Sequence to fold (239 residues):
Amino acid sequence: MRLNKISLCMAYIIMSVSLAACSGINLQINPFGPADSLEQRAFAAYGAFVVAEEQAVILVRDKRIPVSVRKAIQQADRVAKPAADALLQAAVIYQRATVKSDGDLLQAIEAFGPKLQALLTAIRQSKPQAWLILPRPAHINQLIILIA
Amino acid sequence: MDVIFKMLPQILTLLQAATTQTNLHPAIPKWLGILATVLQQGEGAISALIALREQIETMRENDREPTEDEWRTLLQRSDLAHMAIQAEIIE
Fold:
């Protein structure tokens, strides 16, 4: 009986620590959080895209994942890449300009946000547990809200 | 925090082994095992996201913007990954 109480306490502690760790992880690896300036936000968005693409390479090669899901990841990357590179180009032009005009860079981030979201969604379909690791929809929304 | 994060899969695996020996509900060691596996599988993405976050934190602390070199490095990684994804014949 005593052992059962100890076991229950231990289970409670383990679950609490695990849940706390998981919520901490989500906060910890949201790359958009520390970004302050427009250029830093653009860099965070492009950086998150690169990490997602690098994960996508592993996933499209994994034959255990259904063909339809792997094709969806490939298609999402095909759509997102030009928007990502347009964002990068806008950021570099912005950086080089002596007189800063936010318009083009803001527009590039806004155009890229949904495409990054679509790629992350496609990755989550292959690995539902990826919500623990990759930026969540709320993070992308945070990025868009920050620039609005 | 990053160190704890990186050690979490090992900690969870140890906890899983420890809880298997007890008379806890069998679902507890099972879920600890699943969580450990998920974290191990995503280790590459976790490290990359942490590195990116730290890079941006450093920029903010030093009140500077990303350099063209930093952009170029990301572009090269993206180009490589993009080519690998699109080269894959899925059928």
